[in-house]
Amino acid sequence: MKCISIMILEERLNFIRSVLNKQGTISNAFLLQQLNISESTLRRDLDYLQEKGEIIRAHG
Predict the structure, then answer these.
(1) SS3 of 59, please?
(2) How many Cβ atoms are within 10 Å of 43's Cβ, its own excluded?
(3) Which residues of 2-37 are buried (b: 16+ CB within 10 A; e: fewer)?
(4) Residues 58 and 26: beta-carbon distance below 8 Å
(5) 57: left (phi over 0), alpha (psi -120 to 50) or beta
(6) Is the pLDDT of residue 1 over 50?
(7) Which one of 37, 39, 42, 58 has the lowest number of neighbouring Cβ atoms within 10 Å?
(8) Phi, psi (rounded to 5 degrees) for 36
(9) How confident is the model at residue 60 (pLDDT cuts 50, 70, 90)?
(10) CA-to-CA distance for 37 and 58, rounded, in angstroms?
(11) What is the pTM of this model?
(12) 4-51 confidence digits (pLDDT tens)
């Protein structure tokens, strides 16, 4: 039986913060792969961090 790990919101946000602190920039594709979450979940997480002023999102 395969065990599926689901990260809770705060764990995902801490992971995103940690990677950004180390690398400076990250792609959505990288986050989707590492976190194993849907695009809509990632979008909500990034919207939250942007609203808090913790990140600046660049498009394109």
Answers:
(1) coil
(2) 13
(3) eeeeeeeeeebbeebeeeeeeeeeeeeeebeeebeb
(4) no
(5) beta
(6) no
(7) 58
(8) 55, 55
(9) confident
(10) 20
(11) 0.84
(12) 556 799 999 999 999 999 999 999 999 999 999 999 999 999 999 999
Q: How many residues does the chain have?
A: 60
One-letter amino acid identity for 2?
Answer: K
Cα separation, 20 vs 5, in Å, equals: 22
Rounded CA separation 12/15 (Å): 5
Matching residue, tokens 């976190």: 35
60 token code pair? 């394109």
Six-digit token string for 1: 């039986």
Q: Identify the pLDDT of residue 5.
A: 55
Going by C-alpha positions, the residue among 36, 56, 35, 37 that lies closest to residue 46 is 56
Side chain identity at residue 8, one-letter code: I
Return the structure tokens found at 55: 């990140």
